[in-house]
Amino acid sequence: MAAEQADKAKDAGVLGWALSRVVGGFDALGTQLLVTGRTVLWLIRPPYRLGQFLASMDFIGVQSVFIVSLTGVFSGMVLALQTVNSLRQFGAEGVVGSVVAISLAREISPVFASLMVTARAGSAMAAELGNMRVTEQIDAIVTMGVSPTQYLLSPRLLGAVIMMPLLCILYTCVGMVGAWFVAVKGLSVDPGIFISNIEKYMLPRDFWMGELKAAVFGFLIATISCRHGFFASGGAKGVGEATTRAVVQSSVAILIANYLITSWLTEL
Question: Domain span at residue 184?
Fold first, then answer.
């Protein structure tokens, strides 16, 4: 009898834990949608925070140029190295330029650039807003009659959406430079064929697919990171946990959105 009651209590505990996780997930989703909606609405309502917007563009975009460029160069170099070695056995190494260009423009540039921005800027946004929350700076902004959503969140969202496509272009360009050096200078691919196949096979839709993805990924990075930082609690430990969740969830959201957008655009 005692063992049966213990089993029932254990089952009830497991069920309660599962239900709490489900309810917590829906609560987090609702909070995310609510904060995102308010942030978007404040973008079109005056007063417009031009200074905050420019600062966000600088922090998210300009200060990410180095890490995005470094990652892009080595991504292009590795991709060219693998592609040439794989295609050379079929005598098709001449198409390496188009293969690398399309791969970078469609997939690698938006995804990798967004992951780098998530690691650098997304984590910083979550940590900064979380620190402002636990030190009551956000409450002070409210006390002064200023909307913290408009002042803190909207400029970061707009800055991320604008700067991510530009970083994607940068990633593709430096990646192609690295690919050219490896393929032409290192593996003796004809430079004329390398360039001509890019012009022949790469289409404008390949470029715009990557740009659309980058804009969506920037939106996801800003909204998820800002939401976790904005509602952080529990002192320094809570800020650290919020930052970790922001990076993890933003990265997962990028990968999921990448598949969904690719599937949708491929069908079109």
Answer: 10-267
